[in-house]
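This section describes the prediction task in plain terms. A model, or a person checking by hand, is given the sequence of a single protein chain and must write out its three-dimensional structure as a string of tokens. No templates, partner chains or ligands are provided. The sample shown here is typical of the held-out split.
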Amino acid sequence: MKLLRPYLFALFVTSQIGSFAQTKNPKSFKTEAVFCWNNPPQKWTLKSLPSNLRHATFKSPSMGIKVGYYVYLPKEYDSPKFKNRKFPVVYHLHGGRPGSEKKSIALSSFIHRTMESKKVQPMIYVFPNGGPMSWYNYPQKENGMGEKVFVQELIPHVDSTYRTYARRGKRGLEGFSQGGRGATRIMFKYPELFGSVAPGGSGYEPEERIRNNQGEESPTVRFAKGYDAWTLAREYSLRKSPPPLKPLIWVGTKGFNYEYNLKYLKYLDSLGIPSERLIVPDAPHSAKIIYEKKGLDLMNFHNRNFNQAK
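The expected answer:
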């Protein structure tokens, strides 16, 4: 069994294609896979990842069930020397559909190495579960309110459970692929919550399709009209004195949606919304590969924003 464990873990990681590697653009997303709000790890899974990464749960007030998430705590968090210290927090939204808090946890290895190198300040990273439709509220499905559970339940739970600052300037949001879509929609709907935002490898083509088709993503999936990254950006730009956002859009040049990410950047420019970009040459649609190539730049983006926050 011991000999099989490295192979099984590698199989688990490569199976998370929504988060790490996807080579072509799906026109619709199949949701027949078994979904669960709580996915505790096998012991051997966590042994393959930093000991600072832990699985935890909270009871959802709206659903009455346990919701799982992973949390990476920097080593300073448990040090008696820093027992009263608070830490900024970054929420990383996984890709793929349906959701699972396991999908992006392999990124914690890079995050851990960077924290250990002291190249960025100690930060908490949280890997939530996006729900059956990955970061969308989708009342057509039982317990399908992924965005609501994240924004209204998980974030307050994290702030009350861990030593976070519990304020906008020290709270970051990022995501990749489906998680990039979710991060984009959420940052424009709730700009008062996040002072550092970085959507990556986002599927802006299906988001545009939803906008252009009255909420329809595919013949079998329909969201509320206007519930898309393009419309929400425009609505944000029309608000009077909204909390300022300057998102970092990160994408690999070999990702299938690279051109659409460039198109979305131009769209933000046309709305007068400032942005930054992290373009990774020769990187495919893979959060893991982009993190290995340019993850320090991404983490430094949050680090800089947290340092500048009041």
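For orientation: The first helix runs from residue 4 to 15.
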